Amino acid sequence: MKNFSNYTDYDKKDNLHFESKAVHGALGTEPLTGAVSMPIFQAVTYRHPALGESTGFAYSRLENPTRQELERTMAILEGGIKAFAFSSGQAANMAVFSLLNPGDHVLLSDDIYGGTFRIIGDVFGKYGIEHTYVEMDDLDAVKAAIKPNTKMFFVETPTNPMMKVADIQALSEIAKSVGALMVVDNTFLTPYFQNPLKLGADIVTHSSTKYLGGHNDTLSGIVGVKDNEEIAEKIHVHIKSHGSQLAPMDCWLLLRGIKTLPVRMDRHNENAKKVAEWLRTQPKVKKVYYVGFEDHKDYATTIKQTRGFGGMISFTVDSFETVQKILRNVDMIMFAESLGGTETLITYPTTQTHEDTPKDVKEKLGITDCFLRMSVGIENVEDIIADLDRAMNS
After folding, report:
1. Residue 10 domain-assigned?
2. Is residue 114 a contact partner of residue 353, using CB atoms and an 8 Å limit?
3. Where are the alpha helices (DSSP H) in the chain?
4. Modified residue N6-(pyridoxal phosphate)lysine is at which positions (predicted)?
5. Do residues 274 and 193 share a domain?
6. Percentage of residues in the chain with pLDDT exceeding 90?
7. Which of 11, 46, 61, 286 is catalytic?
8. Is residue 11 included in any domain, yes or no?
9. With CB atoms 3.0 to 4.6 Å apart as the test, which of 66, 222, 300, 383 could cross-link to 251 if both were Cys?
10. Active-site residue flag, 210
11. Is 113 annotated as catalytic?
12. Given the residues 210, 267, 362, 373, the one annotated as active site
């Protein structure tokens, strides 16, 4: 692990557990000074020793030491050959969909983040990319939706916000059998709880704004590539051509967040289970969507492919008036979009995260006027429950 001479030689730390890898990253320390925290290299251009000689850095759109450390660290944590840090989760997904050519067809989870819905429909649709939404937890439905020109499966698991779970290994095998790429959005569970690349996926994406950063202070996205150098090079060309790379300061914030990822995810996981169980006892709550319930229809798949349930819960209440009451009265819990931070957040998907999803699609999925989504934070769980109880019942 020790390196006091260059930025080239780094340790993948295969002998260490995940928690240690998260803390120490790739280089871990800055090799020339020994700085324990990788510095923020707020530099655009880099001086060359002589003609034909280079330090390995030329221009920060192409490469930056802080971003390089983040990208190498994420490749280590996800078990891939390369990772790329983008200016947002949307930018990361744009790069992935850019792998498609006009006339190609992509299968997507039917219950998918509204921003992804907008990208594939409004942006790539006009370039001749075909798409079909399908219940990815129904393998027969997936097989039936495949076309001769299907080139990609894009899967959220668990989905946002209905908490459906897809069998990554089984879907990867189906995708491989038809020559399609398997892409998994791993935002909700992070590499601490789930490793799609090790389960057969070709590409993993994150809105690293969420759990990876963990503090609601940086907008960012990650794409990880399993073992295909050609795909990695295409992503590399995309990021340097589009200029959608993550800035040094944001890379540093993300590196700092990753150091505490395992500790935070354990607390999110612990708190969410207790909050979900409490919600089920409430007369005004009609249904709770949480992957950690043993009676969740995809529970067996969750247990097979993950090491935790995460911190996300959705639930339906008895009336729109109850929704209004909760959102008006929560105090410690914050009525705000996003998820995955230290603070507990509650949001109203039908007009916020899934505003761009057509109403008939939302209603079919169950995203109604009485539907709420909660990102359970790392506060004391008794305080979270007390705040919910007061907001809903007093």
Report:
1. no
2. yes
3. 18-24, 65-78, 89-97, 114-118, 139-145, 168-177, 190-193, 229-242, 248-259, 261-279, 299-305, 320-329, 359-365, 381-393
4. 210
5. no
6. 91
7. 61
8. no
9. 66
10. yes
11. yes
12. 210
